[in-house]
Amino acid sequence: MNRSLRFKKFPELKTNRLVLREVTIADTEWYLEHFSRKEIVQGQGFPAPKGMKDARKELQLYFVDLFKNRNGFGWGIERKGELALIGSCGYYKWLKPDGRQAEIGFDLDPPYWGQGIMKEALTAIIDFGFQKMKLNRIEMLVMPRNERSSGLAGKLGFKKEGVLREHGFDEKMRPTDDVIFSMLRRDWVKRRSTVMRTVGPRT
Q: Residue range 140-149: average pLDDT?
């Protein structure tokens, strides 16, 4: 798969309630505020940016360059009719050269928790992953303390495979385990016709 030719433009996705759009350097202020939230820091185990300069560098690396180098996609999440980002989701570690596997990640402002927003967003990008990226396997790594994300993984149809001991680090750079979940293309095929009715259009 020639990723540069297949994805010439960043793919915007739409669902019943959401717009998943490209994150740009113009969103640096949002990035700093969002990824400095205590709940986001604790959930991801990644320290907050130290200021606008660091936020700009991180946004460039994790969003802009991610797509520029065709190593994945990082979508910003907006509610339809509201030009304000409330979170993000995307694919990272998109394996080369065949591109049949990628890791999924996500985050959402706490005021929007419990409304099914992230489930709706992830359903759309999971479908994009299997349909457009031609993935065969999607992985999700969750810190053991992040029970909300583990619960969401189950609701989406991911299967828990086990625990990777001291696989990562928390926000204070202490070794921490990762719980690994996965979804295969054949798992999604069985669920797709039913699940996608709740999401709505995706283009």
A: 91
Q: Which of 90, 66, 67 is nearest to 77 (CA)?
A: 90
The whole-number pLDDT of residue 201 equals 55
Specify the pLDDT at position 203.
47
Cβ atoms of 109 and 87 closer than 8 Å: yes
Strand order across the 137-142 sheet: 13-14, 18-22, 73-79, 85-92, 101-108, 137-142, 175-184, 159-169
Question: Is domain 12-198 given the CATH code 3.40.630.30 in the classification?
Answer: yes
Burial status of residue 92 (CB atoms within 10 A of its CB: 0-12, 13-18, 19 or more):
middle
